[in-house]
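## retry 2 of 3
previous attempt timed out at serialization; input unchanged, resubmitting
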Amino acid sequence: MNKQCFNPYLPSYEYIPDGEPYVFGDRLYVYGSHDRFNGKLFCLNDYVCWSAPVSDPSDWRYEGVIYRKTQDPMNKLGLYQLFAPDVAQGRDGRYYLYYTVSFSSVMGVAVSDTPAGSYEFYGYVSLPDGTKLWDKKGDPMLFDPGVLVDDDGSVYLYSGFAPRRGVPAFLTGGKKRSFRGGYVIPLEADMKTVAGEPKLLFPRAGEAEGTGFEGHEFFEASSIRKIRDTYYFIYSSINGHELCYATSKSPIGGFKYGGTIISNGDLYLNGRSSDQEAYNYIGNNHGSIAQVGKQWYVFYHRQTNRHHYSRQGCAEPIEIREDGTIAQVEMTSCGLNNGPLLGKGEYESRIACHLMSAKGAGRYGVYCGNITFRGHPYFTQSGKDREDNPTQLIANMRDGAAAGYKYFLMEDTWKISVCVRGSASGFMLVSNALHEQPFARIPIHPSKEFAYYSSEITSMPEGKQALYFTFEGTGALDFRSFVLE
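## retry succeeded, writing output
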């Protein structure tokens, strides 16, 4: 590895949620939605792809735009978003990109000869007579595709959407839909023609009694992987912030709930379950798992800018045990690094895995987060949406606000500095855990420009350590980076 890996793993100006990671050849590819910085809706930008060598997941390469909204015949003016996609390699060796245009409930398919595209429109998932699947009033809703080409060449599409209140008909083309849960749909070798009757696998909340999924019922974000002889279905539960998994020996039934793999607020770890007890600001979640080299990882996303519409991809190492189970893992700042970061050098504040106010964190809503969370810190950047010039930071840290980082390998670190600006006056307290005795107290003074403030370190343990920066004082500050010496 040429350099260290951080979370989020892509450049700070990039907003790729709903990540579907795949290894094709000797490269790791991540496909996902494409949010806009400070956008007003989900997925406003065209699909892009990033890839990295399996041998060096720090070396990400921008593959460019792989499919434009306007390429779909239903969206020639580009007025509708392309929601979360998936990619699968067909029996013919080509790569197939699956997506829905907004809430249309029509599943589009594009194709390319190479993993990174560009992709060309291929057709819609349709019945043998050519009519689009589930295109009538009352039909289930196609949403968030997950696609598997099995070892025997069989093709399966997993899809579904089960919000508590459904989706208004004016968003679904005037056709009222049903929302019962997650389905499996067999496809022909052409990757788009339905080969058999769709089957409901994962019932929605309120209809899952006795299934073992109670409390973690299917919501959205279907993703499927086969590991040895076991099928792993990864999905976002009705709780929103978590990615769960279920396993079966068959791709078309018998799935049993396995547990939570990751929560984007670290909920359920150490007994925490309420939104305010989250260690980061929570929102929807979507992702999957991939083996990179010998290590398995879960890919997921976090929220920024006090709303749902500027999400960023993160990853954490996981262990698939001998019995096939996966334990929940915590959010860290060093996911793909596969170990702690060096306890020397300058680090951007944006790699915080935990962020909260003195009153805790919470769940971002659709809009008005700037009002609901006006006294809270948040991740943001300067300027507009772009594909260069990273400037992300933590804004609006007030008295009691904390930013946490896991983990660093601390050896002979004697001094710590922070780069901040704003009206704040007080101290930045640095400790190894929330609400613990600080080992450094850095004086902070008001400054309109970014300035560095420092303190020597006293009685800090060495080895693998977390770092928590808690502001104590008046006013508000923007936190850009910190330096370990």
